[in-house]
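[job 4471] stage=fold_predict status=RUNNING
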Amino acid sequence: MADGHGGTDASFMTPGGIEGRELAPGFEVRGYLSTELGSPSLNSGSATVAPGGGLPYHTHPTGELIICVSGQADVFVEGRRYRMNAFDAIHVPAGAAHGLKNDSDQVAIMHTVFPTGTPEREFFDEGWEVVDCTSTDDSVPESLVVHGEAQVVRLGEAADVINLTDPTDSGRDVAARVVRLSPGSALDLPIESDDQSLFLASGSAVCEVGEQRFDMANFCDTVCVRAGQAKRLRNSGSAPAAVMISEAR
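[job 4471] inference complete, writing structure tokens
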């Protein structure tokens, strides 16, 4: 398994089981891609949210993509509350105040992506009256994609590709999709002009980037694939695998 960064032009993998840090009560974060780890243009991480835990209202100078990987949590954007279930995704643009709370009785795992290797965050106490929402439109700055309603591209029996952001919305600064690989299948992925985060959401997979090989065997294992590099995902296991792929726009 390749696990070193090997210089700024080499792809690398960060294990999902790295030590986390508590950002707020019941809200533990782990960073897999960042400037510090050798990815100055993309930040990819996860948040483990305990029942009753959450993150207060805050803003960022860039957008943020929040994807529910497992469990259930509520994302608040300026008072609008969205209940997030597995593989639902919401993009919050720069400057929009947002927070998160897990009111369920189970742990929630959230995947977060920023179009910068060093995201900044400013907390504040101001709140809004809560309004429950199940969808978004042009009247609000955020954009919600509900997994069960997302665009799906079927690639025969080998894989499905599900868009977690609107591919036609050029105003969003992060794009993402989930690739579901059938057991025994392999999928060649196109060369991209930006670094990408490949985040293992379920099962196991191998990511091949040139002569590099990354065994994504553990939940949340994340590979940074450099711009201009072709890659292949392979599922040699007996169960389906799901990999969330994201990049800055």
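[job 4471] summary: The first strand starts at residue 12 and ends at 14.
[job 4471] exit 0
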